[in-house]
Specification:
Order of helices and strands: EHHEEEHEEE
Radius of gyration: 17 Å
Structural class: alpha/beta
Largest sheet: 4 strands, mixed
């Protein structure tokens, strides 16, 4: 069996570029270069058939360490809770109120980008505190 070389996380959404650019801001990711032969993603998009224009967008870790994120347009809206979600690790190594303060600070930054705060889950005997949020299309993620 061949080893896995890369992982891509794919999001179904209504507005791929808008959601991708949100996640670029959240994670410090960048938009990859356009395909060869195109000066920009807009040029590439205009070359597609009308029904495929705006149907997909991506972002990537500029250091090449994190997974590529791919966003694809789907006709249906989000209906139920995600079965898979991203944990944005902003409180690593922190405990107690210092951790909650770090989570709250990042929460405030992300709300300004259009995210929604859902609830703070306080630490218990098994887990540290985390903050449940939603991105600009309602996909759940956690500040951890």
């Amino acid at each position: 069996m061949a080893p896995v070389k890369q992982v891509q996380v794919t999001f179904d959404c209504a507005e791929p570029e808008r959601v991708a650019r949100f996640w670029c801001e959240v994670l410090g990711y960048v938009v990859p270069p356009p395909p060869q032969g195109f000066a920009s993603w807009d040029d590439y998009d205009r070359a597609l058939p009308p029904e495929r224009q705006g149907a997909a967008f991506a972002c990537m870790d500029p250091a090449g360490v994190g997974p590529r994120l791919f966003f694809q347009r789907v006709p249906e809206g989000k209906v139920v809770k995600n079965r898979v979600h991203l944990d944005v690790r902003v409180g690593t190594g922190l405990v107690g109120e210092a951790r909650v303060a770090a989570l709250e600070a990042e929460c405030a930054r992300l709300i300004a980008l259009g995210a929604t705060r859902v609830r703070l889950l306080r630490a218990d005997e098994y887990n540290e505190s985390c903050l449940v949020m939603q991105d600009i299309e309602g996909n759940e993620f956690c500040l951890d």
